[in-house]
Amino acid sequence: MGYKVVVAGATGNVGREMLNILAEREFPVDEIVALASRKSLGTEVSFGDKTLKTKDLDTFDFTGWDIALFAVGSDATKIYAPKAAAAGCVVIDNSSLYRYDPDVPLIVPEVNAEAIHGYAKKNIIANPNCSTAQMVVALKPLHDRARIKRVVVATYQSVSGAGKEGMDELWNQTKSIYNPVDDVPAKKFQKQIAFNVIPQIDVFLDSGETKEEWKMVAETKKILDPKIKVTATCVRVPVFVGHSEAINIEFEDFLDWQEAQDILREAPGIMLIDKREPGGYITPIECVGEYATYVSRVRQDSTIDNGLSLWCVSDNLRKGAALNAVQIAELLGSKVLKKG
Ligand SMILES: NC(=O)c1ccc[n+]([C@@H]2O[C@H](COP(=O)([O-])OP(=O)(O)OC[C@H]3O[C@@H](n4cnc5c(N)ncnc54)[C@H](OP(=O)(O)O)[C@@H]3O)[C@@H](O)[C@H]2O)c1
Fold this sequence. Notes:
340 residues; 6-stranded mixed β-sheet; 24% strand; binds NADP nicotinamide-adenine-dinucleotide phosphate
C-alpha cells in the first residue's frame, strides 16, 4: 500500500519538478492529484509516462489524502495549507511562510533528518530557501569535523528562482536586445536582467540587507546550528537554472583543504568536482536536472587561522526545492507514516 499524494502548484517551475522527481524516484504513490489555480483547470502535466489534468486547489477536499507537496507561494499557502493540515494531510511547504515558526520543522534530510518528528504539532513541514538548502548540505560535514564559527557567502542565483515569470522575463528581454522592436522592460526583476547582474533578491529590510540574505542567516541557524554566524550577499544573474555560491568559512579548528575534499567526497548529497585545472570545476549549466550539490574550488583561506573557501552549485528547482521536498516525503514515509 502506498500514499495518496497531492501536488499543489503543479503548473509551476517547482510543482512540475516535484511530479518528475516523485516519478523518477518511484515514490510509492497509490493516487496522485495535480492542483493549481482555477485558470489552469484542465492543464495537462506529466507524471512519469502518465498525463494528469490539473484541478482547482480552491475547491479541493484534502480529506483522506496522506501528503501534500505545496509550491504555490506564501499567499495561497496561508489559505490552503491549514485546510490540508486540518484534514489530516501532512503538508510539505516550499514557501517561506512557515520556515521560522518554532512549531514547524525546517528540514534538509542530509543535515537534520531527526527534526521530522516535530511535524505533528501543525501537520506541516517547511522546505528551506533554495540558496540555503545547497549551502547547508556542503557545510554540514565540515561543521561536524571542525566546528564552523562564521560563513561569508555571495550567491549567483538563477532566474528560475523567481518562478515561471522570471524565466520568461530573461528569455524575452534577451531576444528583445537582438530585436529592439519588442521592448521588454523590467517587471519581475528590479532592473534589466538580460546581460546584467542585480544585487537584490526579495525586499529590503531596515538593516540594509535583503530578505533573501536574512533568510540564509535565519535558516542556516535553524537547520544546522544557531551558533554559526552568517553574512550573505544575494545576487540574481542571467542564468536560467542553477544557483552558485562562493562560500568562505571560518572554523574553530584547523581543517586542511585536502582533508576537506576527502570529507566532502564521502558526504551524502555532495559531488566533489575539484581538479585545480582549467575547467576542472562545475558551473550551473552542468548541474541542471541533477540531484547532487556540487562542490569545487576547495582551498585554504590564508588570511585567517582556520579558513577555507569553496564554490558550491546546485539545481535550485531540484535540491533547492522539489528534490528536497520529495526527500522529506520519503523521510516522513520511512520514519513516521510507514506505508508502502
Ligand atoms: N523556484 C525556486 O527555485 C524555488 C525554490 C525554493 C522555493 N520556492 C518556492 O516555491 C513556490 C513556487 O515557486 P515556483 O518557482 O514554482 O513558482 P511559479 O513557477 O510561479 O508557479 C507557481 C504555482 O503556484 C500556483 N498558484 C499560485 N497562486 C495560486 C493560487 N492562489 N491558487 C492555486 N494555485 C496557485 C500556480 O498556478 P497557476 O499556473 O494556475 O497560476 C503555479 O502552479 C514559491 O513559494 C517559491 O518561493 C521556489
